[in-house]
Write a structure and sequence with these properties.
14 helices; about 75% helix; MetI-like fold; cell membrane; mainly alpha; transmembrane; about 280 residues
């Protein structure tokens, strides 16, 4: 096994496959970014060419700033994403700690019930969710999106975090109890710092679908003052004419925050993904 791992041919094949996958994954992002700085004719004439002195143009970004309230859309997306991740991580970690730490009747069934949320798409219940939001007066509010995304992200958060919670040393928690620490103090001061890589993994896995979602903003919060960045970008897509410069520019600006956050939390994400495989 050791020879297989150090075999140059295997290493070359593995790295080649990873590089190929990286190129395929980043290619759409690259195309969007370079075409956002080109004229409309250049986008269709040479979509893969880099912008030069003749094709370079900022008309798309200028249109986004003038016609669409980009900063309001960005603010709404940021509020919804950050608030949803906060509640997903908080409630998900607390539920995972309870399932991993305490043995009670129905513990296993509770975990299986939460796991169903991973297998059943939340969009199946869109009609029921809309009726609930109308009844509670939350339509066209950011709270409607925050509550839906929190419910959407909790099953995966509980599933991942509960496995990491079980790996935390019982001796450490029992020592805290002997010292007189409450269960809340043990949870926040002893357990949570040890599962930060797993929480970063959960945050990244939930952040991207929330940030990119168009379905629920279109149904639950279509008002101008509650539009998210993804929904606000649709203003440049018409039935007969589409302003591709503005669309690509809006998408480029929407991609950047996700890329920045991924770079910041990439080390924690990798640790969270790989630590579960090593005992």
């Amino acid at each position: 096994m050791h020879k297989a791992r150090t075999n140059p041919i295997n290493l070359f094949a593995m790295h080649g496959a990873l590089i190929l996958y990286t190129i395929i994954a980043l290619f759409p992002v690259f195309v969007i970014l370079i075409n956002s700085f080109k004229t409309r004719k250049a986008i269709f004439r040479e979509p893969l060419a880099l912008p030069d002195a003749d094709t370079f143009s900022l008309i798309g970004y200028q249109t986004v700033m003038k016609q669409g309230d980009f900063f309001l859309y960005f603010q709404n997306s940021l509020i919804v994403t950050v608030a949803s991740l906060f509640f997903v991580l908080l409630f998900g970690a607390m539920a995972a700690f309870a399932l991993a730490e305490y043995r009670f009747k129905g513990n296993l069934w509770m975990g299986l019930y939460l796991a169903l949320g991973i297998m059943i798409p939340i969009r199946i219940g869109t009609v029921a969710i809309l009726e609930m939001m109308v009844a509670t007066g939350l339509v066209n509010t950011l709270w409607a999106l925050i509550l839906v995304y929190t419910a959407q992200g909790l099953p995966l958060a509980v599933f991942i975090l509960s496995e990491f919670m079980r790996q935390v040393s019982d001796d450490l928690k029992n020592a805290g109890r002997i010292d007189g620490l409450s269960e809340y103090t043990i949870f926040f001061r002893l357990v949570l710092p040890l599962v930060r890589p797993a929480m970063a993994t959960v945050a990244v896995f939930n952040m991207i679908p929330i940030w990119n979602d168009l379905w629920f903003p279109l149904i639950l919060a279509p008002a101008e003052e509650t539009k998210t960045l993804t929904l606000g970008s649709q203003v440049f897509i018409g039935q007969f004419v589409t302003d591709w410069n503005a669309v690509l520019s809006a998408l480029s600006m929407a991609i950047l925050p996700v890329l920045i956050l991924y770079v910041i939390f990439s080390r924690q994400l990798i640790r969270g993904i790989t630590s579960g495989a090593v005992k």
